[in-house]
Design goal:
By secondary structure, the protein is α/β, with parallel strands linked by helices. It has helices at about 20-35, 50-55, 90-95, 110-125, 150-155, 180-185, 205-210, 220-225, 230, 235-240, 280-290, 310-325, 340-350, 365-370, 390-395, 405-410, 415-420, 435-450, 450-465, 470-485; strands at about 5-10, 40-45, 60-65, 70-80, 85-90, 140-145, 160-165, 175, 195-200, 200-205, 215, 245-250, 300-305, 330-335, 355-360, 375-380, 400, 425-430. The strands form three sheets. A nine-stranded mixed beta sheet has the order 3-4-5-2-1-6-7-11-12. The protein binds adenosine-5'-diphosphate and alpha-D-glucopyranose. Alpha-D-glucopyranose binds near residues 251, 384 and 386.
């Protein structure tokens, strides 16, 4: 089959700019696709960190687009060794310190609609080969609401590329008021319930969901969950309408970056055959985090954005019980909601010999937490895919997860039957509440008290799972071909 040209559009990508799992995916899926011989190029906003980390860059084209008084430069460089990179350089919109979406106080930038609408316009211009880059993609792979307007902008174009829109998290939709729609000067025809209008508001994500040729989400279970009111946030009707074009494709992980046998962030390398060496990482992590160094302590870990989704409040809720148990410790790494940050700091101060919290973002420490802990807690209320449980499995750190979304698809509960069949990889609980989380933790503690070979078997079962990108990349390629061969009609011209 002929190689494809694929433009991969996202608002963050490792190692240039990252706030969460989207960056891991945008930094590694394009590489996996390119291994099959396709020309995959990534386009990102020109944030200052991204520009600095991607240097050297050269100006490849200049665009004049509605919504920007200044000319827009497309800076060209490389993301890693083999992926061509385009950064959309609009200093007035993107040259700001810190987080890509929020200001120093944690509030969304007020001009986010303008910022990401311009990003979408630039992507659409490249997609149509109107940017003088001399390259025409067969398909644009859009990710999350920040790229949602791209399929809508392309829908009416005669010779448009195919589009695929991936939902990484339906909780973030890019919804603004009508005035933002007016300021952006989008065609009035797009303001309709079949278009970008969402209960009298302006929705970026609807541009992705309604106008794209195919919709994917990042796990099969989440693809089903979002068809229900509980997880669909009012978009379940539209998604149900599109089910023949909706699929769940499980995320993979970068097996080079996340490999306990070669990870440069770790004090001690190990693999499934040298599992016993893992405990050296535990001792070093305890030392780094100021906990008593004790290889027999049962060390739990958690890493994540401190938001309602991740269920950190449930971890806080079970803490008194956890501390009552003999010789347990907990390491927390996260940033986000300031009340949760304060609460984590407070428990760490109150129990310095049992709980350590690092409030902030530290990529290297995340690797050491994954390697040093015995168990990883992931009580997410919902989880489109989740990457930390996959990193945990790869690092022999047994995950304890709520049965939802990608967590349900990737962790196999340690039931007697699954243990007997050598399939068990973690502890799974059914309800996102403290009682259910606590019972799963108790099961883990009890299991850890058995002869050590039992625990090692469970942990190394996880290490032997294959969550590399290859299978998922093949799945995406099949969907790309279907999207190219059978485009979806424009929903605004097919209203009957
Ligand atoms: P989400 O995308 O919803 O945040 P994922 O589990 O898919 O959740 O991905 C989270 C990614 O962000 C992982 O790579 C995780 O290690 C990383 N991460 C989250 N918070 C932090 C932090 N405070 N420090 C370092 N890495 C973090
Ligand atoms: C989102 C989801 C997370 C997923 C990640 C990458 O941020 O919350 O579950 O793993 O995107 O797809």
């Amino acid at each position: 089959m002929s190689p494809l040209n694929i433009l991969f559009a996202a608002s963050e990508a490792q190692p240039l700019i990252k706030t969460g799992g989207l960056a891991d995916v945008a930094g590694s899926l394009p590489v996996a696709l390119s291994h099959f011989g396709h020309d995959v190029r990534v386009v990102l906003p020109g944030y200052p960190q991204a520009i600095e980390r991607a240097l050297p860059l050269h100006p490849a084209a200049t665009l004049q687009l509605p919504g920007s008084l200044e000319p827009i430069q497309i800076l060209e460089g490389w993301l890693g060794a083999r992926i061509r990179l385009y950064l959309i350089d609009v200093p007035g919109l993107f040259d700001r310190p810190g987080n890509p979406y929020t200001n120093a106080y944690g509030s969304d930038w007020e001009d986010n609609p303008e910022r990401f609408a311009l990003f979408c316009r630039a992507i659409a211009t490249i997609a149509l080969d109107h940017a003088d880059l001399n390259w025409r993609p067969d398909l644009v792979h859009c990710n999350d609401w920040q790229t949602g307007l791209v399929p809508a902008l392309l829908a009416d174009e005669g010779s448009r590329p195919a589009t695929l829109f991936t939902i990484h998290n339906l909780a973030y939709q890019g919804v603004f008021d009508r005035a933002a729609f007016d300021r952006i000067r989008l065609p009035e025809a797009l303001w309709s319930p079949e278009g970008l209008e969402f209960h009298h508001y302006f929705s970026f994500i609807k541009g992705g969901l309604a106008f794209t040729d195919w919709v994917t989400t990042v796990s099969p279970t989440y693809a089903r969950e979002i068809l229900t009111p509980e997880f669909g946030y009012g978009l379940e009707g539209l998604l149900l309408h599109r089910t023949d074009r909706l699929k769940g494709v499980l995320n993979g992980i970068d097996y080079e970056e996340w490999d306990p046998a070669s990870d440069p962030a770790l004090p001690q390398h190990y693999d499934a055959d040298t599992f016993d060496l893992k405990k050296i990482n535990k001792l070093r992590l305890q030392q780094e985090m100021g906990l008593p160094e004790d290889e027999n302590a049962f060390l739990f870990g958690h890493i994540g954005r401190l938001v309602e989704q991740k269920g950190v409040d449930l971890i806080l809720g079970i803490l008194p019980g956890l501390i009552k148990q003999q010789n347990t410790q907990l390491v927390l790494l996260g940033s986000g909601d300031s009340r949760l940050e304060q609460a984590l700091r407070a428990v760490a101060e109150e129990h310095p010999d049992r709980v350590a919290a690092f409030i902030g973002y530290d990529e290297q420490l995340a690797h050491r937490v994954e390697a040093g802990c015995d168990c990883f807690l992931m009580p997410s209320r919902f989880e489109p895919c989740g990457l930390n449980q996959l990193y945990s499995l790869r690092y022999g750190t047994v995950p304890i997860v709520h049965r939802t979304g990608g967590l349900a698809d990737t962790v196999v509960d340690a039931t007697p039957r699954n243990l007997l069949d050598d399939k068990a990889t973690g502890f799974v609980f059914n309800q996102p509440n403290e009682g259910a989380l606590w019972r799963a933790i108790e099961r883990a503690i009890e299991f850890h008290r058995r002869p050590p070979v039992w625990w090692e078997k469970l942990a190394t079962n996880g290490m032997k799972q294959d969550f590399s990108w290859e299978a998922s990349a093949i799945h995406y390629l099949e969907i790309y071909r279907q999207a190219i061969d059978e485009p979806s009609p424009n929903p605004l011209t097919t209203i009957d």
